[in-house]
Each structure stands twice: as structure tokens, then as C-alpha cells.
Amino acid sequence: MTQMHRVGAPFDVGHEFEPFVRDSGFPYWNRYAAVNDEFIDIHMDDEAGQAAGYPTAFGMGNLTWAYFHVALHRWLGDESRVVSLSTQFRSAVTRGTQVVVRGTVSAVRVSGAETVLEIDMRAEDSNGNRLAPATAVIALA
């Protein structure tokens, strides 16, 4: 696993981690749906997505939420602990959208033996349109 910033290294406010990128569409949604038993028409059928007002079927919101977790663990490694993560979905991830997760350290503090990072995150499409803003609090041993 690649770590952009090793645990124990200094973390500065303003540091941005390398973007985490994922394509979207049926192959990805089917895998997620299989694990979560979430085979819902709006996520699997373009006509159902169009009937709901979207140009195509659209991905599960919780899959985008999972991408935030993956991005954090890819950046900080498995020794990090997600204390909290919150997001607000602003736009659906339609078939063919590339999801880009970005994050910036907004605060650093020491709590006991742990370094605690507050991170402003966002999921965007490849054109920079915001899909979901998020905030995370991460503890590093």
C-alpha cells in the first residue's frame, strides 16, 4: 500500500493528499450491490434512473462515502483510525462519472499518545464539480 505521508511524519495544516480516483458504472455498482444486497433499479437500470430525473442510472451514495474511507487509508495506512467521517451528498454519481476524492489537513492536535488530524474532504467529478463535501477526524498512534 502506498502511503503519501508516513505515520509519525509531520503533518502540516494545508497539506493535500494525492487524489483518489475511481470510475463509476455498472461493474463497480454491481460489486458494491452484491456485498450490500442493494440491487435497486435506479442503480442498475438507465430507464429507472431517467424516470427518477437523472440522465442514467446512478451510483449508491454510500459507495462514495466508502471512497472517502479508502482514500484516507491509502494515504495514512491501516494504522490510522477514523474517529469520525461525515458527508453531504450534493449530486448523484451517474454512469461514466469519474469520482475524484481530495482532502486537505485543516487542523492538527495531540491528544494523549495520538496525533489527531482534521481533514476537509470532497468528492468531485473529473471537471471539478462537487459531488459531496466531507469532514474527517483521524487518529494516528
From TrEMBL:
Residues 30-116 form the MaoC-like domain. Signal peptide: none annotated. SUPFAM superfamilies: Thioesterase/thiol ester dehydrase-isomerase. It holds the Pfam family MaoC_dehydratas. Belongs to the enoyl-CoA hydratase/isomerase family. This is MaoC/PaaZ C-terminal domain-containing protein. The lineage of its organism: Bacteria, Bacillati, Actinomycetota, Actinomycetes, Pseudonocardiales.
